[in-house]
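Researcher: Predict the fold of TetR/AcrR family transcriptional regulator.
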Amino acid sequence: MATTDKASTRDRLLDAAADLFYSEGVSVGIEALCRTAGVSKRSMYQLFAGKDEVLAASLERRIPLHEEQLSPASAADGTPRERILRVFERMEYLSTRPEYRGCPFLAALVELKDPEHPASVVAGTAKGRLQEMFRAEAELGGARDAAFLARQLMLVFDGASARAGSRIETLDDGLATTTVTLLLDAAGVG
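Model: Structure tokens for TetR/AcrR family transcriptional regulator follow.
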């Protein structure tokens, strides 16, 4: 029974951390985290060494959902060009939701500013996976320089995500997909 209680406490902490860090930023304190999760600080410290470890674990746990939200239903759906565009179409759609605050991984990287921080390592891994997906799809689509195109796509993704997440820009008019279409055309991705 103790295992179930610990798993439940761990899940509540990670859920609360994901929500709070995304909506409020990584500076949220342990008091607020534990209060939101409905757990004592003692329980938190029995499961995690500290807030940094909770933040890293919550980001790690978020990767599959984030990738699922942005990906086509199947890797075989459409052409490489359509699969790349689908990521930006999904981001544009997600950005219209009131709770949208941009890419959680980019936000963590920007706020933490320390590439060695455990959460920065996780966030960097998530961003690297997206860039690698862009590179692989660009290569399959015949891009002249798939690695360079992947870097360009990351700039558009991160920039559009940050601007929409901070409510500086809206993406509901296809701004990101229009920009990406131009990049794909210039790179020769058919």
